[in-house]
Design the sequence.
DNA sequence: TTTAGCTGGACACTTATCGTCCCGCTACAT
DNA sequence: ATGTAGCGGGACGATAAGTGTCCAGCTAAA
């Protein structure tokens, strides 16, 4: 780190926290504009008064302007965000974390974003935005993109900029409809991606919890077979990583399933597979969808998960993840992962 | 200025003031160490509590350590001071001020130091220190140095580092003994300089307020004549600049003299000469000492004066000062000077 | 041995901050 | 056209933080 910055921090130790807080607020406003105090305080995870104090300051500094519909970031504000982006990543130690995680997880790229989405819901939007930027960078080269479901994936679709339209893009739902909220189903997300980018969409509608015979029969259907072939040609896989138990409960799985997941020691879940803490597959939901092998042979894989509560799941998943996988996460998760592994080393 | 710093300031406008304050306190401790809270609060011009709050912080940051004799700056603290020195000058706009003053006063070099010695007595020590560094840089080249009196000059002698000893140096009292405090007489200062540097000293003892005849007679004395010749060979002149009225009062001048000084519109004083606001000599104390012409033909001249109260005097003196003169002043004086000249331009 | 000056602790008091509610307004959806 | 949700700004008692001031105990120099 810059020796000047270090000296500043020595003389003003409160600077880092204060800068982080204000930067986060300004960033959140930018991501959600126009937004009011109350909504902002929800997203930032602080009280209305706190938000008010800081936004008053930001307004005085002419970084945001207050319109009747809410606050928006001024041109100057955007400039400040840009100027501080790398600095904030450095000063928070994010760059150092990325390096550590890269070697720890054995993958080529890790992106760690500020704060913790467990504390500050707005961090999810930022993760979504950066994931969207990364994904968009693949568009010229790769056209067949498989996407899963989940709120994390929804955040990405929100942040896809519509000025990168490309009608050749093909978004493929990586999984069939499951017992999840329809808004966060892979099918919904895939069509949302397509809508934002002007690409086409391939959805997969298969009810969850089929009997084995029904399942086998469906797999012989041409529409379904076509999807299975598409999975083989996938260029990019974009997926979230979940906590095994949470996901199992969300899906209203049968008690038998939950039992198998529990007894197998499942920690993480991704595209229908459950992994234990060694990264071994301990269970798989019997529904159509992309195969683990198909994911791993894709040229590019984006794995997205934030919040310290996901640390264990991330660690579990990356025990056997493909080396070309790119992880996009946040400070909270990254910190926790490094803590956990450090403890293990001590033992 | 660095765009990153600018962005930081936008997001944390209180940073500048806070940094300045803490930097100044740390610097003052360094200059006066070991020093206690009460003495420090006097020098810094703030309350004991304020000082205590900040020094507690500095101690927590391990920039200072508290010994029973007082606080001293740690190694880390010195590093912080060094790292921040140029930054503070930049962020306070001192560098910009120096440029403006250089062209305004028509001289080649101006050094502006932080804060205002009218508010913070410790600033004088800093001015003294920097003046000492500048003077020391001349030592290899120039050996004959004429010095005047005053508290400013005393501050320099305090800060002369004794590890630059040079027995060839010759310090010449630029003036005879005047009705001033003996501690701040040119003679005292000159011998103090000599003591610190290992050089020799030439003092000039002549009572103030001599009759004209006695004065003429003295001037024919060999000891005195020798001094007059030395003035001709002076390499460096180091002098302060005073407010005409203050100096006149300090010297317990006769009412006649004070009247002449007043009616002449004298604003500034330096080495016994009084200048009006156009820089014209309006009066000269009849005592032995260096001549204005002798000063102006010296290869190097250091003029030192700080505090906004000295702004008018500085401005007055530099109306006709030699272009090789170097001004060492502080933020308060510099700011006031620029304000004053800006007002004149508006009219 | 005395004394001056230092740190660290203590405490009442003032000041600023915070949580909370309300108001009038605007923009959008009905 | 009209209702309504959400906005910024104002206000104010409760509360926490900061401030001025003193004292005890200690150390080092005179």
Sequence:
């Amino acid at each position: 780190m810059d020796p000047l910055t270090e000296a500043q921090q020595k003389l003003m130790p409160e600077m880092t926290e204060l800068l982080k807080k204000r930067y986060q607020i300004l960033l959140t406003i930018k991501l959600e504009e126009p937004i009011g105090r109350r909504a902002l305080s929800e997203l930032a995870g602080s009280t209305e008064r706190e938000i008010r104090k800081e936004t008053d300051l930001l307004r005085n500094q002419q970084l945001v302007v207050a319109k009747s519909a809410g606050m928006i970031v001024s041109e100057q504000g955007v400039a400040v965000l840009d100027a501080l982006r790398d600095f904030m990543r450095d000063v928070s130690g994010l760059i150092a974390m990325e390096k550590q995680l890269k070697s720890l997880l054995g993958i080529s790229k890790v992106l760690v974003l500020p704060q913790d989405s467990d504390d500050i819901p707005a961090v999810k939007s930022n993760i979504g935005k950066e994931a969207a930027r990364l994904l968009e960078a693949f568009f010229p080269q790769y056209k067949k993109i498989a996407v899963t479901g989940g709120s994390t994936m929804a955040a990405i679709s929100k942040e896809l900029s519509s000025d990168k339209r490309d009608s050749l893009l093909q978004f493929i739902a990586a999984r069939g409809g499951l017992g999840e909220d329809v808004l966060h189903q892979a099918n919904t997300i895939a069509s949302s991606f397509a809508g934002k980018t002007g690409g086409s969409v391939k959805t997969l509608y298969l009810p969850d919890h089929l009997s084995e015979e029904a399942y086998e029969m469906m797999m012989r259907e041409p529409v379904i077979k076509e999807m299975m072939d598409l999975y083989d040609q996938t260029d990019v896989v974009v997926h979230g990583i979940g906590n095994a138990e949470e996901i199992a409960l969300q899906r209203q799985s049968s008690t038998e399933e939950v039992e198998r997941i529990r007894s197998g020691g499942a920690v993480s879940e991704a595209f229908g597979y459950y992994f234990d803490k060694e990264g071994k597959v301990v269970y798989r939901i019997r529904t159509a969808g992309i195969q683990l092998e198909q994911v791993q042979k894709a040229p590019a894989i984006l794995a997205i998960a934030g919040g310290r509560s996901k640390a264990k799941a991330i660690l579990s998943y990356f025990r056997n993840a493909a080396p070309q996988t790119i992880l996009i996460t946040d400070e909270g998760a990254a910190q926790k992962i490094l803590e956990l592994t450090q403890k293990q080393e001590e033992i």
